[in-house]
Amino acid sequence: MIAYRAMSALDIPVVVSLERAIFKVDPWSVAQFKEEIAAVGKTRHYLVAESDREIVAYAGACVIAKGEVGDIHTLAVIPEFRGQGIGRHLLTELITWIEGQGAPAVMLEMRTGNVEAEPLYRSFGFEFIHTRKSYYAPGVDAVVMRKDFTVSA
Prior knowledge:
- Residues 2-150 form the N-acetyltransferase domain.
- Keywords: Acyltransferase, Transferase.
- The protein is an alpha+beta fold and 153 residues long.
- The protein has a domain at 2-107: Gcn5-related N-acetyltransferase (GNAT) (Aminopeptidase, 3-Layer(aba) Sandwich), CATH 3.40.630.
- The chain contains four helices and seven strands.
- It has a seven-stranded mixed β-sheet with strand order 1-2-3-4-5-7-6, with helices on both faces.
- Strand 6 (127-137) and strand 7 (140-148) form a beta hairpin.
- The chain is globular, with a radius of gyration of 15 Å.
- 29% of the residues are buried.
- The mean pLDDT is 95.
Protein backbone atom coordinates (compact mmCIF):
# COMPACT_ATOMS: atom_id res chain seq x y z
CA MET A 1 0.00 0.00 0.00
CA ILE A 2 1.24 3.47 -0.87
CA ALA A 3 1.15 6.17 1.81
CA TYR A 4 1.50 9.88 1.04
CA ARG A 5 2.82 12.56 3.37
CA ALA A 6 4.57 15.91 3.45
CA MET A 7 8.29 15.82 2.71
CA SER A 8 10.50 16.90 5.60
CA ALA A 9 14.15 17.89 5.92
CA LEU A 10 14.83 14.38 7.25
CA ASP A 11 13.82 12.96 3.86
CA ILE A 12 16.40 14.97 1.91
CA PRO A 13 19.25 12.39 1.90
CA VAL A 14 16.96 9.66 0.52
CA VAL A 15 15.27 12.03 -1.95
CA VAL A 16 18.63 13.28 -3.24
CA SER A 17 19.77 9.68 -3.71
CA LEU A 18 16.63 8.94 -5.73
CA GLU A 19 17.04 12.23 -7.63
CA ARG A 20 20.54 11.22 -8.73
CA ALA A 21 19.36 7.78 -9.84
CA ILE A 22 16.32 9.07 -11.75
CA PHE A 23 17.71 12.31 -13.20
CA LYS A 24 21.26 11.48 -14.22
CA VAL A 25 21.60 14.80 -16.08
CA ASP A 26 21.46 17.82 -13.77
CA PRO A 27 19.98 16.32 -10.57
CA TRP A 28 19.08 18.68 -7.74
CA SER A 29 21.58 19.02 -4.90
CA VAL A 30 21.09 18.67 -1.15
CA ALA A 31 21.28 22.47 -0.91
CA GLN A 32 18.50 22.91 -3.48
CA PHE A 33 16.19 20.53 -1.63
CA LYS A 34 17.00 22.20 1.70
CA GLU A 35 16.08 25.58 0.22
CA GLU A 36 12.80 24.20 -1.12
CA ILE A 37 11.84 22.46 2.13
CA ALA A 38 12.65 25.62 4.13
CA ALA A 39 9.88 27.38 2.17
CA VAL A 40 7.23 24.68 2.74
CA GLY A 41 4.17 26.24 4.31
CA LYS A 42 4.98 29.59 2.71
CA THR A 43 5.49 29.29 -1.04
CA ARG A 44 6.30 25.58 -1.50
CA HIS A 45 4.49 22.25 -1.18
CA TYR A 46 6.46 18.97 -1.22
CA LEU A 47 5.23 15.41 -0.83
CA VAL A 48 6.63 11.90 -0.74
CA ALA A 49 5.03 8.54 -1.47
CA GLU A 50 6.12 5.55 0.58
CA SER A 51 5.81 1.80 0.21
CA ASP A 52 6.68 -0.13 3.37
CA ARG A 53 8.08 3.13 4.81
CA GLU A 54 10.53 3.51 1.92
CA ILE A 55 10.26 6.61 -0.26
CA VAL A 56 9.37 5.57 -3.81
CA ALA A 57 8.31 8.94 -5.23
CA TYR A 58 8.37 12.65 -4.48
CA ALA A 59 6.99 15.85 -5.91
CA GLY A 60 7.04 19.56 -5.24
CA ALA A 61 5.54 22.82 -6.40
CA CYS A 62 5.77 26.55 -5.86
CA VAL A 63 3.42 29.54 -5.88
CA ILE A 64 5.26 32.78 -5.08
CA ALA A 65 2.11 34.82 -4.34
CA LYS A 66 -1.65 34.76 -4.89
CA GLY A 67 -2.39 35.58 -8.51
CA GLU A 68 0.99 34.31 -9.72
CA VAL A 69 1.31 31.26 -11.96
CA GLY A 70 2.28 28.14 -10.03
CA ASP A 71 5.16 25.88 -11.01
CA ILE A 72 5.60 22.13 -10.67
CA HIS A 73 9.25 21.94 -9.64
CA THR A 74 9.70 18.18 -9.56
CA LEU A 75 7.81 14.91 -9.87
CA ALA A 76 9.65 11.60 -9.77
CA VAL A 77 8.66 7.97 -9.28
CA ILE A 78 11.25 5.20 -9.11
CA PRO A 79 11.00 2.83 -12.10
CA GLU A 80 9.72 -0.18 -10.14
CA PHE A 81 6.67 1.80 -8.98
CA ARG A 82 5.71 3.53 -12.23
CA GLY A 83 2.35 2.77 -13.80
CA GLN A 84 0.59 2.38 -10.44
CA GLY A 85 -1.02 5.83 -10.26
CA ILE A 86 1.51 7.30 -7.83
CA GLY A 87 2.59 10.10 -10.16
CA ARG A 88 -1.06 10.84 -10.94
CA HIS A 89 -1.87 11.06 -7.22
CA LEU A 90 1.08 13.36 -6.51
CA LEU A 91 0.27 15.58 -9.49
CA THR A 92 -3.37 15.82 -8.38
CA GLU A 93 -2.26 16.89 -4.90
CA LEU A 94 0.12 19.53 -6.29
CA ILE A 95 -2.45 20.96 -8.71
CA THR A 96 -5.06 21.12 -5.95
CA TRP A 97 -2.61 22.96 -3.70
CA ILE A 98 -1.54 25.36 -6.46
CA GLU A 99 -5.13 26.20 -7.37
CA GLY A 100 -5.90 26.67 -3.66
CA GLN A 101 -3.11 29.27 -3.49
CA GLY A 102 -5.01 31.44 -5.97
CA ALA A 103 -2.82 30.71 -8.98
CA PRO A 104 -4.52 31.26 -12.35
CA ALA A 105 -2.44 28.54 -14.00
CA VAL A 106 0.41 26.09 -13.47
CA MET A 107 3.50 25.47 -15.58
CA LEU A 108 6.17 22.80 -15.68
CA GLU A 109 9.31 21.84 -17.54
CA MET A 110 9.89 18.30 -18.70
CA ARG A 111 12.85 16.74 -20.48
CA THR A 112 12.22 16.39 -24.21
CA GLY A 113 11.35 12.79 -25.00
CA ASN A 114 10.00 11.89 -21.56
CA VAL A 115 7.46 9.47 -23.01
CA GLU A 116 6.15 8.39 -19.60
CA ALA A 117 5.46 11.87 -18.21
CA GLU A 118 4.06 13.66 -21.24
CA PRO A 119 0.82 11.60 -21.54
CA LEU A 120 0.23 12.07 -17.80
CA TYR A 121 0.59 15.84 -18.04
CA ARG A 122 -1.60 16.03 -21.14
CA SER A 123 -4.31 13.98 -19.38
CA PHE A 124 -4.44 16.76 -16.78
CA GLY A 125 -4.92 19.41 -19.46
CA PHE A 126 -1.33 20.64 -19.76
CA GLU A 127 -0.53 22.04 -23.20
CA PHE A 128 2.78 22.56 -24.96
CA ILE A 129 4.03 26.17 -24.78
CA HIS A 130 7.57 26.01 -26.17
CA THR A 131 10.94 24.27 -25.97
CA ARG A 132 13.86 25.61 -23.92
CA LYS A 133 17.05 24.59 -25.67
CA SER A 134 19.80 23.10 -23.47
CA TYR A 135 17.74 23.77 -20.32
CA TYR A 136 19.01 20.79 -18.34
CA ALA A 137 22.45 20.53 -19.92
CA PRO A 138 24.03 21.18 -23.32
CA GLY A 139 21.84 19.32 -25.80
CA VAL A 140 19.21 18.37 -23.20
CA ASP A 141 16.11 20.44 -23.92
CA ALA A 142 13.01 21.06 -21.83
CA VAL A 143 9.43 21.11 -23.02
CA VAL A 144 7.47 23.84 -21.23
CA MET A 145 3.81 23.02 -20.55
CA ARG A 146 0.96 25.02 -19.01
CA LYS A 147 -2.48 24.32 -17.58
CA ASP A 148 -4.90 27.20 -17.06
CA PHE A 149 -7.48 26.97 -14.29
CA THR A 150 -11.11 27.71 -14.99
CA VAL A 151 -12.09 31.02 -13.44
CA SER A 152 -15.62 31.05 -12.04
CA ALA A 153 -17.53 34.32 -12.33
